[in-house]
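We treat protein structure as text, and this decision shapes the records that our systems exchange. This encoding replaces a full spatial description with a residue-level series of whole-number codes. Below, we set out a record of this kind in full and without editing:
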Amino acid sequence: MINNAEEDIPLKPGCVPECPGCVHKYLTREQSLAQKEKWLKSKLAAWKSKFDPIRTGNGKSQWEYRGKVCLSTQWEQSIWKFGLIKNEVVIPIHTCPVHTRKIQDAVSLFSSSLPSSVLFPLAYYVQNGNQVTLVVKSKQMPDLAWLDDPLKKTLKYIGIKGLWLHLNPCTGKKVFTKNTWHLLYGSPRSVDENQLIYGHGAFQQLIPALYNHALSSAETFLAPDSGDIFIDLYCGIGTGLARWQQRCSNVMGVELDGEAVACARQNAVNTEILRGKCSNRIPQLIQWTDTHPPDGYRLLYVNPPRTGLEPEVLNWIADTCKPDRMVYLSCSAGTLQRDLVRLEKNGYKVIRITPYDFFPHTLHVETLVFLKPERENYPQNLPVSP
């Protein structure tokens, strides 16, 4: 059970008690990590002996780490409230201590600079690093007189590189629709801490140093070499691809999101990248592997959404691709458990499981799993613990 003893563990300045976002806000760091490990091992009990200790960033990375948000909005008393919904009311979290300073500054600016809801029917405020999107519940472009030179100067000062307007008259549980994006200010692309290009909507993992550790661990285990072939499914903006291609000549990525694919093709220029659902790209994957017979190993890295690997993809991995080494980064222990059972039934063995605390103060925890076929005695190439 979560200890809600507010008198024992005071909230961080700027934290709103009513906010439903950080469920672990009344836990110490040690208590939160212990609960996450316990919960994860209960979900993945069959592989309990394979667990590493949970990996977490340094103390500074526990705060002001969240550089991507999607906040609900509400106009009230001549100001916009940006935050999370609780009991159908927006709880404003303008000074949230887990948000980056850039998000705090941008939220403060827009909450007092935008017109009223009558003139500007704002539904969501979305920020991805240096890119901001205002989602408006309208078909028509609203008056943009508020976007004057002083506001643009302030945006530049706080580090906002791109400001977008997204028209979606049906916005609700589904935030975005297609083909109604309008760049109002700045550049459509930014550069992250790894010097990789990203856009307004492309997914990025939080806490870059911790994510780099996960990728380094995957790279150590997979040990790509020039004679291998390497497939990266759900490759995003190509953060992993940029690594793999430095060691392996034949690398392919697959990603559904069009903006992420466009960025990945700039971040990993020597890599073939297919756009679409991974399940729909299986024929091309088969053709590509057939035309690139490896002198070494077949290597696979997957980072699917919460729904896990699609059934068709699981079948392809187990029956056709048959990678010699595989790494699976999961954000859902439930679907991960399902997929690992399927892979083990087809001759794969879980070598090691490393949890990562990419979302401090919340319930969420991600899991990196290393697998290899039981049929061969391949070198394990286990990552070195830091």
Q: What stands out?
A: The chain is about 25% helix and 25% strand.
